Amino acid sequence: DQQVKQNSPSLSVQEGRISILNCDYTNSMFDYFLWYKKYPAEGPTFLISISSIKDKNEDGRFTVFLNKSAKHLSLHIVPSQPGDSAVYFCAASALGGNYQLIWGAGTKLIIKP
Amino acid sequence: DGGITQSPKYLFRKEGQNVTLSCEQNLNHDAMYWYRQDPGQGLRLIYYSQIVNDFQKGDIAEGYSVSREKKESFPLTVTSAQKNPTAFYLCASSIGVGELFFGEGSRLTVL
Prior knowledge:
Oligomer: heterodimer
Number of strands of chain B: 11
Shape of chain B: globular
Order of helices and strands of chain A: EEEEEEEEEEE
Largest interface: A-B, 24 and 28 residues
Mean pLDDT of chain B: 92
Structural class of chain B: mainly beta
Mean pLDDT of chain A: 92
Helix content of chain A: under 10%
Radius of gyration of chain B: 13 Å
C-alpha cells in the first residue's frame, strides 16, 4: 500500500522553463512534507519542506504547493537549470516525526539544453 | 567539514555471510537512521535510533541488526537471514524533528 505516490517516473524539461513535480498521498494524518534531491551514487539532500498549516513555501527557485483537500503537493522549479537534473523524492510524516518518514518512489528530472 | 561518512562504498558478499556497514557522523545529531533503496522504489526504513543505546525497528528490520554504543556511530549488520540483501543502503542523521542528512550510501551486492 503506497501511501506516498509519485506517478511520473521521469520528466523532461527544457532549460529555462518551469519543472513541475507531483506527489500524492493517501494518509490524511500526514502533516509534514519534504522534497529531497538525489544524484546517482550519492545520498539524497534536503531541498524544501512544508507543514500542513501552510499551502505554499518558497526558497529561491523552488516552491512547494500543498493542496490538503486533494492530498496533493507539487514542487515547482523556475527557471530549470542543467544542475537540476536528478531524482526528486517526496516524503511525508505524521505528527512531525522524522522516524516515520514515508517516501515516494522518486521522479527523475532531465533538463534539456 | 561536518557530515556523515558511510563505508565501504561498494561491498560484495557471498551468500550466508554477515556483513557490517559503517556509518559515522560528526554533526552531533541525536537521531540516526538506516534506509534501503531498491530500483524504482522509495527509501524504506530499516532501523532508527533516537539516542545512544536505544534503537527501534523500521518497516523492514528482518534480517538486519544495529547497535548505537556511541552518539557518532550507527553500524548496520546485514545477516545471512536477510533473503534479498542486494541493495543500496543509506545512513542518515537528524536533530530530532528536522531535515535528514544523508551519507553517500553503500552498495551491497550478494554473489
